[in-house]
Amino acid sequence: MTDLSEAPHGQGAPTTRGRAADFWRRYVRNRSAVAGLVILLTVIAMAALAPLLYPADPFSLAGRPMSPPMTGQFLLGSDTLGRDIAAGMAHGARTSLLIGVVATLVAVGLGVLMGGLAGYYGGWIDDVLMRLTEVFQTIPSFIFAILLVAVLTPSIVNIIIAIAVVSWPALARLVRGEFLSMRNREFVQANVVMGMADWRIILVQILPNCLSPIIVAASLLVATAILIESGLSFLGLGDPNVMSWGFQVGAGRTVLRRAWWIVTFPGLAIMLTVLAINLVGEGLNDALNPRLRERAS
Amino acid sequence: MSGPLLDIRGLHVALPPGSDRAFAVEDVSFTVGEGEIVCVVGESGSGKSLTARAVMGLLPEPKVRASAGRIDFEGRDLLTLPPSERRALRGERLSMIFQEPMTALNPLMTVGRQIEEVLIVHAAKLTAAQRREKILALLDEVRLPDPPRMAASFPHQLSGGQRQRAMIAMALILDPKLLVADEPTTALDVTTQAQILRLIAELQARHGAGVMFITHDFGVVAEIAHRIVVMQHGRVVEAGTADSVLNRPAAPYTRALIAAIPSLTPAPRRPATSARTALRVTGLGKTYRMGGGLFSAARAVHAAKAVSFELKRGETMGIVGESGSGKTTVARCLVRLLKPDAGSIDLDGVDLAPLSRGALRPYRKRVQMVFQDPFASLNPRRTIGDILAEGPIVHGLAPAKARARARDLLGLVGLDPKVAERYPHEFSGGQRQRVGIARALALEPEVLVADEPVSALDVSVQAQVLRLIADIRERLGLSIVFITHDLRVAAQVCDRVAVMHRGEVVEQGVTAEVFAAPRHAYTRELFASVPGRDWIAPALDAPDGAAAQ
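C-alpha cells for the assembled complex are given below, as produced in the milestone run.
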C-alpha cells in the first residue's frame, strides 16, 4: 500500500509565520495597493502624532484669520476665524479614523450576526431577517444617516451608531450568501452528524472560511464610513466639540474664492484617505482570494 | 492517404515553472487510424486529458503549452499550423465531446441554434432551410426523440443523456475525420452510459471516423476500444490492441490497475455471525416540495417511498441505484441530516425518525457518516488533529484525551500519527478519505453510513480504501450501510444489497443471489448496463498496491 507511505505534499505544515509571509508576498504584487498602504500609514501616523505636533486645541484661535499657506506660523494657512488648518487636519485624522474603524466594527458585528443566522438556518428565520434587511436597504443611506443624527443629536457616539445602522445590510447580505454556500458543504454536515452545537458550527467551522470576503468588504466599509462622517460634518451635523475634515470643508466653503486653501487641504485629505483605503481593500482582495484573481485575469 | 489519421510523436506538454513536475505529458507517441477507436486510459494526473487538449489546440496557453514533438493530422503538423488554419480544421475535420454536457453547452441558446452555429461558421454555403434539415436528420441519428422539439429546447430542459446526445450531434454535424472524446460518459448513469457508448461505437462505424477516447474506466475500455494506450504520470506505459492489453497486460502498472478493478462476481461471504439487528428501517418516506408560492400548488417529488430494510450487526448493506433513485436521501435520513416524513429508523429500540434536533443529540454518535467528496468533507481551515478531536470533545471528552485518540485513529486508518498537525490541502484524495473515515470512527459508532465513499477516487486508491473499510468493519464489529452507484464495488463490499429506483426499493437480498439471478426488470437492466461486463479480468499476480507507485 504505497498510498500510506506517500508523504504529504509541500514542505511540512505551514506555520502562522509562513502563511503571513505568503500573504505579504501576494499583497506586494499589487503596486497600487502598496501605494495605498503607504498613504494610509501616513494618515495613521499623522493622527497618532497630532497631540505632539499640535498640543493646543485645534479650535483655538492661533493667529491672523485667512492667512495663506506658508505664511507666519501656519504651514497650511488659517481659516476665517484664525484657526490653524494643519492642526485641524491632524486632529481631524483622529476623528475620521476613529469613526471609520469603530462604525465598521459595529456594522460587521451586526452584519455577521444577521447574515450568519439567516444563511445558516434558512427558512422563516432567513425570511424575517432578510425582509428586515431590505427595509433598511430601501432608504438611501446618507439621508437615513442624516435623519438618525438629527433625531439622536450630533455626538460622536450617535454618528457612529448612524453610520453602523446604514452600513450593516450590505454586509449581512454578503455573509448570508457565504453561509448559504458553506451550509451544505460536506464538512459542515459532518459536524452536524457529529452532534456539534449550532453556535459552534457557525463560529468555529463556517465563519473562519468566510473571513476573506468579510475582511475585504469591511476595509471598503471604512472608506464609506469616513465619507459619510465627512458629509455629516460638512452639513453641520458633526460633533461640535470634535475637529473633523468635513467640518473644515464646511466652514471654508463660503470663502472658497478668497481663501482656497481652507477647503482644499482637508478635501484632499478626505480624497486621499478614501482612495488609499480602497486600494488597500483591493490589495487585500488579491491577497486573500488569489484564485478569484487568477480566474479573472 | 496511407499513413494513420493522427500521429502523435514525442509530444511534450510543459507545465509552468514551480509545478510539481516539469512536464504534464512527456514523450508521448501513438497513432489513431481511420475508423479506429483508441482508448487512452489513465488515472487522474496521468496527462490523458492534456494530450487530448493538445490535439484540439485547447491547452491553457501560454502557461501550459506543447513544448516539443509533433501532432500530425492527415500528414500536417497541427502544432506548427497558424491559428487560423487550425481553427478551420477544428469542428470541420476534428471535433471534441466534453465530459460535462451541462457546462459544455451554452445555457442561453437552444440546442438547435448551437448546432446551427457550427454550420454557419464552417459551411457558409448552406441555406437556413438546408441547415435545419441537416440538424433534424442528425438529431434523429443520435436518437433524440422528437427532433424538432429537441432542437427548440434549451440545455436545461434535457436530461443528462439527452444533452450528451446533443453534444455528439454537434460534434458530428460536419462529419469530422477525428473525434476526440474526453470522458464523455463519466458524468452519466450506468444505463445512460451504456446507451451512449453503443451510440458512439455505432456512429463511428457508420461515419468511419477515428476516435480518441479518453477514460479512466477499464470497463468502458473493454466495451468499445480497438486499441489501448495506458498512461501514467504523463508517459505512455503500454500500448497495444484491446485484446492484448486487457487480457495479457505486460507493464506492471497496467497489471496493477487491472488487478485493482473490483470484479463483478460477488466475493464469497462468511455467514452472518450475529442475528442481532443493528438498525431496522421501516416504511421510510421523504417528499420534497418544490416551487409553489402563494398562488401555485407545490410540486411534490417522492425522493424515498416506503423504504424498508434491516441491517444486522457486523453486516454491510449495500444500497445501489442511479442518480435520482433516492439512495442519498435515504443515507441522509439515516444520519438525520434530513427529517423523514414517514416511517421509523429503529436503532436498538430507539426510533430516530421523529426525534427533534435536541433529543437526537445523545444518539448522534451512534450513527456516523463517511462522505463522498474527500475535498469538500474536511474543513480547510482546521488541522487533521482538530478535525478528528472535534467530535469526542463535543461529546464531553477532555481535549488532551481527544487529541491522543485522534493520533490512534490516524494509525488505525493507515496514516502516520504525525500528520495530525497538517492541514487537509496537503493530502491526496485517498488520504483525505482515510481522514474522513477516521473522523466517523472517532465517536465509536455502531452504524456507519458511507455515501459513495470511493466514487471520487482513482481505481487503485479505491481498492485500498475499500480494503480499509472491510478491515475496520472486521476489527470493530461495525455495521455499514454502503451507498454506491457502482455495481462492481457493491459486489465486493456488500453482504446484502437493496436496489433503488425512483425512490423505491425494487429488490433486495443476499448479494450473490441478487447478482446471480436478478428478479426485477430494472435490476436486470442495471446489470446489463455495467460496462465491460463480458470481460473477465485475467487473474494477475500483480504485487499488492503497485498501482499507486
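The first helix of chain B runs from residue 48 to 56. Residues 245 and 461 of chain B are 21 Å apart (CA to CA). Further analysis is deferred to the final report.
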